[in-house]
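**Polypeptide and fold**
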Amino acid sequence: MFAQQKQDSMAIVLLDSIVAQNKNESIRDRAKNIITELKRRKDTEAYLTSLKIIKAEQVLATINEEVPNQTPTIPTPPTSNNAIKTNEQAKKLAEVKNADSSKEKNIALIEPAIVFNKDTTEQYYAAVVTHKVKTTFIKEMQTAFSYLNNDEFKKLQLNVTYVQFSEDSYIVWIGPFANLNNSTNYLNKVKTRLSKEIISFIPTNQYELYLLGKSNILLIKNEEDLLLYKQFMLNNIYKP
């Protein structure tokens, strides 16, 4: 979205964070390639200006559609010298169009940013996102939370389930809670007991705590989406 609006600096900041924090090599390589193409944008536009043939905006427009409101001109029959200059200019313009066409394809790989929302009244889930934890321990974590909820939070009637999110990651879901306030109270009560009591068998650097509204859960499809939601959560929903 930022790249399409020519907000290259914002796009590069987002892409740099993906390269630094994302563990998926294909996603990181994709982000690096897009950063390279964005940094070339200014060089391409400067080259277009030096040609003095057509504005950069018009060159981009001709990639996909005719430029509107253009008055047709009748070309003057070229002399031999004019013909040489015209051919040279045509070659340069073709090279620029090919470069812009390639750049346009790469920039299109940036998908629009996900728009998360803060609805405090909808159902919420607490989530424990693990990193490189074996399935055996994930099942033990599920059991530990189930015992805790039956003993101390029985009135909330919470379910505990888990899913494999990626090759090295599982998510343990706890909920649903009636609203954001209920889920926040729950995590505040249990988070200080996790490392010493509830899930002491898992190192603290191998899991993270999240609170997610039901509508936002539906928007998260991969680790990149989860990283975007984490920033939204820390700023708007909950800081573990």
Remarks:
- Residues 53-80 have pLDDT under 50 and may be disordered.
- DSSP finds nine helices and four strands in the chain.
